[in-house]
Amino acid sequence: MGRVGQEHHAQNDRYRVRHAGPLLPPLVQDAVEDLLARVDRALPGRVPGFYLVGSACTAAFVPGRSDVDFVAIVDGEPSAHELRRLAAIHVGRWVASLAEDVTLRGRWPLVCNGIYVRQSDLARSALEVVPIAGHVAGRFRVAQRAGFDVNPVTWTTLADHGIAIRGPHRDRLAIHTDCQELRRWSLSNLNGYWRRWTKRALDVRALPRRAAAAGVLGAPRLHYTITSGQIATKEAAGHYACTVFDPGWHALIEDALAFWLESPAPVVYRHRPLRRRHDASRFVAAVIDAANQLARAQRLRTATVPAGSRRVLLAASRVRSRSPSPLRRSRNVQVRDPRG
Fold first, then answer.
1. Phi and psi for 186 in degrees, rounded to 5?
2. How many CB atoms lie under 10 A from the CB of residue 79?
3. CA pair distance 311, 100, nearest whole angstrom
4. Pairing relation of β-strands 68-73 and 112-117?
5. Closest CA relative to residue 123, chosen from 158, 97, 82, 164
6. What is the H or E stretch that residue 95 is in?
7. Distance, C-alpha 49 to centroid of its chain
8. Mapping DSSP to helix (H, G, I), strand (E, B) and coil, where does residue 42 land?
9. C-alpha angle 111-113-117 in degrees, rounded to nearest 5
10. Span 231-265, pLDDT tens digits
11. CB of 301 within 8 A of CB of 337?
């Protein structure tokens, strides 16, 4: 396949995702080439489109932390035999990654997670689409929505930043995007998955640092999307959270960023997993409450934008968040227009 990826231009917005350059990270390129070679043997000539979404297409891929996320376009309906071969590929690569990356290198396994859909599915609301199949962390399912990234965030990321490994450029695809649908789904995800996460985080004795970082950076990503109608990377979401929420949370956010960027943990959380667990649960709950206040606020209004534009910004409103003890210093914080 050679060099893959497409040239993109960086955006000026401080918190928006950064576009990838002409080359993908070698780890990503190798993983994609390996997967496509295997998929082509299982479904010869049946996958005319393959697009990277997520961190690999936003210059935010971190080795040992990130997955490779994709959307694959399938021509026709695969047979049961073909789907079993596809499942064997993904589960086999997952097991191999566990053995190589986790056992031998002590890092998060590099795995390709994604969905197989029809090209016509892209023109529909992601909330109406049932994928042909999908894989996430060793789980391969056929014709199921649950647990897979068939959602407005994936569709928006593909439309704005997707990298065509195979098939036409993303601008030539008919992809359904709706800013209000994106914001509503983000709020629903916070109130559903992430609200449950805050309770599960307190049920375990010591939340793994990776899981804590996922919550501390993941919830503000959705808060940012609700505020701006745009998508942020995990790293950008951490910096955004530091500008929006009480400074008492900054040590926790910096701890999550340090994990994601493989830096030393701040002293306040070093060798204190129980405190990290407790504070992460409370912070995510505070982000959810703040997002609901934003959604309910009468002063929230969409800005006037050109017809067809996906970039809808929301007027700023005030939210209240509580910082973790002993740094508790509750106060109003301003949720600013991220473009300044």
1. -60, -45
2. 10
3. 42
4. parallel
5. 158
6. helix 80-97
7. 21
8. helix
9. 150
10. 999 999 999 999 999 999 999 999 999 999 988 88
11. no
